[in-house]
Specification:
The protein is an alpha/beta fold. It folds into 2 domains: about 240 residues, 3-Layer(aba) Sandwich (Rossmann fold), CATH 3.40.50.300; about 40 residues, no CATH class. It is built from 11 helices and 11 strands. Strand 5 and strand 6 form a beta hairpin. Bound molecules: adenosine-5'-diphosphate (ADP) and magnesium ion (MG). It is found in: Cell membrane.
Length: about 290
């Protein structure tokens, strides 16, 4: 399977040569194939947003290389092609809404692709439906009259309407209420099922574990871990160091294993955990 994303020794320094020089990314080597879902975790200031902005070429490596959908992100001549293929949803995207109506806001990307207006409209309605906005009457509203959570949905719909090959979301759950988080989590799960390549930055292992299959952990600009979720769960030292809290169902399984019970800990979903706990209970029914 060809890589959709590949970085080779990618490093990035803000304001090189000035007194403010700061190396935000150091020797990053990651790759992602089509359909994979990557979660990026790390403390504040670890370089997550800087890395996110590399995916669509907004920031170019100071040294090393990055290709996204086969396009070298450093080549300014290809930046328009890259923009069509890699859609980046910024942190707090609702602050960057600038069109007069919801419809125009979501149509901005498809119109820039040069699509005919009928297809633009189809894409707008489809994208709005995906983010749970069905009412026709919302389309002509001004985005500023909507709540923050609704504006976030509109901003995400604007990126979905471009139908990028890879979607990158920078902390999309931050500040959303429970209903908003559930909706977004369902949208992202669906993308994953449809094998649409996605990168999501998050603060919360619990929130991302349910969706992702690969995880990268950044600290001070370096990758501390890159691999499958299951492998991360085998590394209590890393989980402890970054205070990565496990979902309750895994805590139950680990607690039983720690107490010496024969229970499988190699588990990555609620479904698997419930099957294993059920098996465990049935086996131990007659008193351990
Ligand atoms: N525009 C900038 N100019 C200079 N330094 C920056 C800039 N943006 C971010 N940084 C610095 O780069 C580091 C990584 O920042 P960032 O990528 O925003 O981290 P995160 O998203 O993980 O919080 C931080 O030390 C931050 O202060
Ligand atoms: Mg950030």
């Amino acid at each position: 399977m060809p890589a959709v994303v590949e970085t080779n020794h990618l490093s990035y320094t803000y304001l090189p040569g000035s007194v403010y020089e700061h190396q935000a990314l150091k020797d990053i080597n990651i790759s992602l194939t089509k359909g994979e879902f990557l979660g990026i975790l790390g403390p504040n200031g670890s370089g997550k947003s800087t890395l996110a902005q590399h995916f669509n070429g907004l920031i170019r490596p100071t040294s090393g290389h990055m290709t996204v959908c086969g396009i070298p992100t450093s080549d300014p001549k290809l930046s328009k092609d890259l923009w069509k293929k890699a859609g980046l949803v910024f942190q707090y995207p609702e602050q960057q809404i600038f069109q007069v109506t919801v419809f125009d806001e979501v149509a901005y990307g498809p119109r820039n692709l040069g699509l005919p207006e009928t297809e633009v409209a189809e894409r707008v309605y489809d994208a709005l439906r995906q983010v749970g906005i069905n009412q026709e009457n919302i389309n002509q509203l001004s985005p500023v009259t909507l709540s923050g959570g609704m504006r976030r949905r509109v901003a995400i719909a604007g990126m979905l309407a471009i139908q990028p090959e890879i979607l990158i979301l920078d902390e999309p759950m931050a500040g959303l209420d429970a209903a908003g988080r559930k909706l977004l989590s369902d949208i992202l799960k669906k993308r994953h099922e449809k094998k649409e390549t996605t990168v999501m930055i998050s603060h919360n292992l619990k929130e991302i574990m349910a969706i992702t299959d690969k995880i990268a952990i950044l600290d001070s600009g370096s990758i501390i871990f890159f691999g499958d979720v299951k492998d991360l769960l085998m590394k209590p030292e890393i989980l402890g160091r970054y205070q990565l809290e496990l979902p309750e169902y895994l805590q139950v399984v680990y607690r039983l294993a720690e107490k010496g019970f024969a229970i499988k800990t190699d588990i990555s979903s609620m479904q698997e955990a419930s099957e294993e706990i059920l098996r465990f209970l049935q086996e131990n029914k007659h008193g351990a």
